[in-house]
Design goal:
Elements lengths: L5 E4 L2 E4 L5 H19 L10 H17 L2 H4 L6 H19 L7 H8 L4 H15 L25
Antiparallel strand pairs: 1-2
Helix pairs in contact: 1-4, 2-4, 4-5
């Protein structure tokens, strides 16, 4: 059996095959621990409200999930990794919406008014590509036309 070396660098776990399986599992463990600790204070009839849970999600859990997303975003092309990420998000969505477990993921996204995580990861990857000058299929060359400012033009 082939041994796969792994290294943790700046909070992202890399391996020699760049599969990011270990990183996704590590991130999942951290987020699930945080969500379950939070769920003790957010029961169905008492505890933190919808807005407070949504704020905690956007300020605490979402940054944990999206850290380094520009590096590992291509991993979500595999359905098993995409499902793991969606399961993490589903745990907190159920707490925010105070919904039953039978509610679909898509409905939870609509009810909570939050973008699905796989779309956020793709968005972060595209923003990174644009800011780093990496050409994508959405880039196009534009012709620049040099014009003088109307205030500096001579009146005739």
């Amino acid at each position: 059996m082939e041994q796969v070396n792994k290294i943790k660098y700046l909070g992202i776990i890399f391996n020699s095959k760049l599969l990011f399986r270990e990183h996704i599992n590590y991130m999942k463990e951290k987020c699930v621990k945080l969500i379950f600790a939070l769920s003790r204070s957010a029961k169905v009839t008492w505890g933190l409200g919808h807005d407070a849970l949504k704020t905690i999600y956007k300020g605490g859990i979402l940054p944990l999930m999206l850290y380094g997303a520009a590096v590992w975003k291509n991993v979500l092309n595999k359905s098993c990794y995409k499902a793991k990420i969606n399961r993490i998000q589903r745990h907190i969505y159920l707490r925010i919406a105070r919904a039953y477990r039978t509610v679909s993921n898509e409905a939870l996204c609509v009810i909570n008014g939050i973008t699905p995580i796989h779309i956020k990861v793709d968005e972060i990857g595209r923003v990174y590509e644009i800011t780093q000058g990496i050409r994508t299929q959405y880039d196009r060359d534009m012709e620049l036309e040099i014009r003088t400012h109307p205030a500096t033009q001579s009146k005739q």
